[in-house]
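Instructor's aside before we start: the two examples that follow are unrelated to each other. I chose them only because their records fit on one page, so don't look for a connection. First example below.
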Amino acid sequence: MMTTTNSYGALFDLDGVLVDTEGTYSLFWSEAGRRYHPEIPDFDMKIKGSTLPRILEAYFPDPDISEAVCAELEVFENAMDFPLFDGVIEFLSDLKKHGIPAAIVTSSGPDKMKRLFKSNPEFASYFDAVVTSGDVTLSKPDPQCYIIGARKIGIDIDRCYVFEDSINGLTSGMASGATVIGIATTLAAAELEGRAHAVVPSLASMSVDKMLEVKR
């Protein structure tokens, strides 16, 4: 796809930004941390934003334990709901109305995305691209995923807006060269201040006009 220079793009983290699942995942990884790594406090926060392969490599290198964690996570995700945050569809509709391409940029795998789109069939129509753990070799906070996301929607990264809720994700977005908007759904706004170009309570407070007011 040819890169467009006279438009903008929107790149969204998934959990904690578009879908209200971050707290649910925290329960899973908190329990995994308690069982396998009691020496690491706040294990769920430590791994937030990392891809599953990176988590397994760093914290569960034993093949038997790694296999057990993957099996537990699969059962967990198969039972999950994917509730959208209030205001998400309205903002995505506004982007579409203005012809601004959007992409999901997530540390989750492609199988989860299939389950998400199956449970929310209309949701996929709002996005021009999806970047999953299968597309990257480096996890957040590395900027690779957002650079790939910008490339997939054909917009220069410095004309893209990144929406993130985690520290690793904000670091990734800032390092990519995008304009970064922190979403204070998972962490308090005070914890995000200074790590993004702007911080908002949720996407319910966003519109295209408000997005374009944010400057790097």
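Example two begins here.
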Amino acid sequence: MGRVVVLTQGGPNPEILVNALKRRVPDLLVVEEKPESKKAMLRQKVRRLGWVTAFGQMATMAVSKFGKPLARRRASEIVRQFGVDVRPDPALPRISIDSANSAEFVRLVGELKPAVLFLVSCRILRPETLRAVPCPVLNFHAGINPQYRGQQGGYWARVMGDEANFGATVHLVDAGVDTGGVIGQVRVTPSRKDTMHTYPLLLTAAGTDIAARAVADALAGAVRPQETTTEPSRQWYHPTLWRWLWTGMTRGIW
């Protein structure tokens, strides 16, 4: 069995998957990249979506932070329900880098020679970075592909009245945004107490099995992408502040 490298920006949700994988993978290593600055994120959003939408999305991300303390009780319930661990394991080897899209990371991949690269909560890898990785690259996405690619897949499934597709996906990584072949999916039912603060945690906790199975299949050279729905593929982003507030106040979806 070869080495598995997890690439992440860290945080409680990725640690759930790291801790789930360490129980099944003897040779596991975590590479942590630095998060993008808010300024860089804003520039990217402006290029893609324009100033008004970009500022609206950043405002949602800023304002919604005030609701995080209110979600702590529900987060604790999710952790107990699924028996997951959000704490970093100090015994696991970890390497820090500035960016996954850097010459430093490409050199590191060459040195580590991973059998599988598993992405969770990190930058989108550029095509030239992907070409330099000589092993299967998998990604954990807190949404159902192809309908809810991008950001906040669980939230948008609820907003669209599509709770049957409230779930998570593990897929192969290609040059698109969550467009690679689907390896595994899981669907769950959110509680009335869940909000945008707890959707990702709920989906990550529910997705540990599909993540572990996907990595095991990749190590065995047995990855088989599934056939997925013919429904339209769409990339989503954070809601703007005005849409988030309106949907929350009129429909109770926060």
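The mean pLDDT is 95.
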